[in-house]
Amino acid sequence: MRRGAGVVDAAVAVEELWRQESSRLLGALLRITRSVDQAEDLAQEALAQALDTWPRSGIPDNPAAWLMTAAKRRAIDHFRAGERQLRAYAVAAHGSAEAYEAEFDEALSDEHIRDDVLRLMFTCAHPALSEDSRTILTLRLVAGLSTREIARAYLTSEATVATRISRAKRRLADVAAALEQPVGAERDERLRSVRAAVYLLFNEGYSASAGTDWTRPELCREGVRLAAILAWMTPEDPESHGLLALVELQTSRLDARVDDKGQPVLLADQDRRRWDHQAISRGMGALTVAVHLGGQGQYVLQAAIAAEHARARSVEDTDWERIAGLYGRLARETGSVVVELNRAVALGKARGPAAALRLVDEIAAAPALASYHLLPSVRGDLLEQLGRHAEAAIEFRRAVGLATNEPERDLLLRRAQDRSPENGADRPRTDRDRQHSADR
Q1: Which residues on adjacent β-strands are paired with residue 211?
Q2: C-alpha of 228 from chain center
């Protein structure tokens, strides 16, 4: 034991441990109890025991093993006390208390970590749940986020998130969700859901959808961690490696995306010396694996686009023609008009603003872009490059009205005001002025 740990130190240690180990612990408990509710209850009891014990006894030398052992003891205590649900699951699955204890020891061994965590991920991605419920349950059980953290990500109340989690777990119980790993088409579908949940978590960190923060690095770090686990657990899956490559490459820019006041710094103005070159190296390695496995899906394509940015010394040095081509392939793969909007930005860099504006105007009426603030933002940027400054100002004001992230809204408002006729909208534009809000 590391003696002398105070209450604050112990609480921090427990929180960090929970973040790192909760998916392993819950996965093992789920295999033993056959119940998401029961597994989470037992894990929370072990966590509470650590919070109660460690400030007095010190942080153990192997905190993860301590937590695993505490969870095992709590489960066996419940079994011996005759807790009906747990006893029913245990007897049905194991036959006796002795077999139950033996199976518990086996479940907590290292050789089962991969299967147990993947099983937990697949359970959270059960087809009986809505996409929203899958993501929230993944954030709670796999990522180890608290109800408060999830509520902040969703810009809602803790009570609402707690209700959604409870409903999702009840739904799993109602359909008697099988805990074995799915096979064939169902496995592929659930794996897609797991990747989507990790991707949504990362994106909320990389470009916060609302609130006062431009980025939320803690969510990005969690996304990278989960993507790494997923790639490790599905080594044959190119899209999992593509997802890992994408989040590593995007994470490399985080420090350069905000200034010392937390305000947005767009791609054209970023100091590339601040990019994390170790993250770039890891991302490139994961992309190499994905390509070697024959990956051509959406995450591999997005990672390839991010890699082009990572290779370039500057915006001007970037191979925009190749990026536009990759976006074209991605648009065909996903059918997304948002991807087409990004392709327009790349076309503008490669072939000039007129070609880009034609594409933007072709897709502008798409319902999916009706409330998307980057549509008028990109259009405003292209109009400005064409010297149509008054029209550009109108587009930037439209973007302000649609944006929900405060730093981004402030940035767009400054652009609208700077381009207004009373502020000299016809003055020559510098390269700095020509940056666009789609540069992420």
Answers
A1: 405
A2: 12
Residue 271 counted as domain residue: no
Distance (Å, whole) CA 222 – CA 267:
23
Burial group, residue 141, by CB count within 10 angstroms (0-12, 13-18, 19+)? buried
Range of the domain at 83: 1-108
Residue 386 domain-assigned (yes or no): yes
Lookup: tokens for 37? 């509710």
The Cα 279–Cα 236 span in angstroms is 22
Backbone phi and psi for residue 264, each to the nearest 5 degrees, phi listed first: -60, 140
Question: Could you give the CA distance from residue 267 to residue 310 in angstroms, rounded to a whole number?
Answer: 11
Looking at residue 356, which CATH number applies to its domain? Answer: 1.25.40.10
pLDDT in tens, 264-310: 998 989 999 999 999 999 999 999 999 999 999 999 999 999 999 99
The residues near 411 (Cβ < 8 Å, ≥ 6 apart) are 263, 264, 437
CB contact at 8 A, 216 and 205: yes
Q: Can you give the pLDDT at residue 90? A: 54
Q: What are phi and psi of 366, to 5 degrees?
A: -60, 130
Number of structural domains found in the chain: 2
164 in a structural domain: no
Alpha-carbon distance of 32 to 176, in angstroms, equals 15
**Radius of gyration, alpha carbons of the chain:** 25
How crowded is residue 142: how many other Cβ atoms within 10 Å of its Cβ?
Answer: 26
In the DSSP assignment, the letter for residue 182 is: P
Is the separation of the CB atoms in 28 and 49 below 8 Å?
no
Query: Who's near 292: CB < 8 A, 6+ residues apart?
Result: none
Structure tokens at 262: 């937390």
Q: What is the DSSP string of 76-114?
A: HHHHHTT-HHHHHHHHHHHSSHHHHHHHHHHHTSGGGHH
What residues are paired with 258 via a beta bridge?
A: 264
Domain contains 374 = yes
Write down the number of H helices and E strands in the chain: 20, 0
- Regions of the chain short of the pLDDT cut 50: 1-5, 422-439
* Last residue in a domain, options 93, 108, 123: 108
- The SS3 assignment for 294 reads coil
